[in-house]
Amino acid sequence: MLSKSAARLFFLVGTFATTVAFVALTVDTLRQVPEQTNEAQLSPAVIRGKELWESNNCMGCHTLFGEGAYYAPDLTQVYERRGPAFIRQMLTDPEGLYPGQRRMVTYAFTQEEQDDMIAFLEWCSHVDLNGFPPPPTVGVATAPAGAGAVAVPQVYQQICSACHAVGGVGGQVGPALDGVASRRDADYLRRWLEDPLAINPKSRMPKMPLTPEQLEEVLAYLSTLKAGEPAP
Questions:
Q1: Fewer beta carbons under 10 A from the terminal one: N or C of the chain?
Q2: How much is the pTM?
Q3: What domains can be seen in the chain, in order of their start residue?
Q4: Which segment, 42-51, 62-71, 128-137, is predicted with the most confidence on average?
């Protein structure tokens, strides 16, 4: 049993040690804040995008950094998951991407406002949240390694797989793409990717803002999806 003087000494030493540890951890946290919060990339566009996010009450449906509603998907890492082309299309015409399924309001954002919102969501995706939220494990298409294998393009993962499935992985809004290269030739697939409504005015698929490079990547991947053959 400690004597009164020993107990006093234990209390004083313990209090001093925990205070020093608390101060040291606080200083270390503050030192890491600028880098972890991606402060250097807070451009005027990002700030305007944040103002758009707040003025349009996006958190009434979406979650960001763990804050917000759970009616609609979490958008903390949406830029990494879906990319700018998908985000722009959702901001332009959400019903066009998910006919009869999405209830997101169609905001009359200008081109500049869309750019600002995309810049804000890109900034959010680079904030270091120590692994939160975790990477998705459901509905992620993969391509097995092998001689001559064509990797699933990132743009396909970000945009196309939201509506189409290959090998049972992907969305159900549009038809599955298994064996599509056996049903359609490369010229048809190219014209469809460039403007599906020009081929079928009743198509529910909108014209996607693909760059020429992205179009070629998706075309190369779709050309490998032949009937009776596993996805590459």
A1: N
A2: 0.64
A3: 39-125 (1.10.760.10), 154-222 (1.10.760.10)
A4: 42-51
